[in-house]
TrEMBL record:
This is cytochrome-c oxidase. It comes from Neptunomonas marina. PROSITE patterns: COX3 (PS50253). PANTHER family: CYTOCHROME C OXIDASE SUBUNIT 3, CYTOCHROME C OXIDASE SUBUNIT III. Keywords: Membrane, Translocase, Transmembrane, Transmembrane helix.
Amino acid sequence: MSQGTYYVPEQSRWPILASIALFLMAFGAANLMNSLGQESGSGLYFLLSGTALMLMIMFGWFRHVVIESMKGLYSAQMDRSFRWGMSWFIFSEVMFFAAFFGALFYIRVFAVPWLGGEGDKGVSQMLWEGFTPAWPLLSNPDSALFPPPSNIIDPWHLPLLNTVILIASSFTLTLAHHALKRDQRKPLILWHLLTVILGLIFLALQAAEYVEAYEELGLTLQSGIYGSTFFILTGFHGAHVTLGTVMLIIIWLRVLKGHFSPQQHFGYEAVAWYWHFVDVVWIGLFLFVYVF
């Protein structure tokens, strides 16, 4: 392949199959949400079918891309396209979490004070006399309908430990990346494996924290706006950590098979970018969800 040639892949069935899987997932999720509380509904089956199909497509599609890359079919222009694609994907994730952080700040700075009667839009005293706004909101305006939690998660216990773990995982992944650039396979394998282990420990501690929140503190999705924002932000982040850990495991298996070289390893870099992004988001969560 001559320098500057742009690789155009052959016609593929993967995009149309992915569209079908996404449709099944969206249709199933919408149907499931609208049938909650009913004895039967097909939403769950559509959602699970779409998810299973999407996983199969991702496995096959990514395998196809890996094979093409290992055959040397991709030019420098294709490499730049991959980098732009991953950059825009991470940017979309930044906007995703920015929306939820924006909702959190809006609730804390505007909505809760208005419920307490503050400002021109404060109408609380006409609805819930005696309600005192505070954050975290442990005394909901309608405590009968939305029972508040007995307390909040101690930020200096599991959340602090998880923060240390994720920050440490960024360092171990960086060390593994540098080992790859120097073509040092053993340090690469060991540092990357340690990163995977730290990711799994984080998920285990997050699960333990959720059990504590539900069983000991009464902090649930039905606990009012504090419970909703807590689980939406930490839950979506946990989903991203899960996805990132799966990506790290797959990349580690590829490393064991001898994939990647100091000159060509964007697949490794893309996963590293994603993992560092997830770590930065957690720092924001630790500060604005747990501490302040």
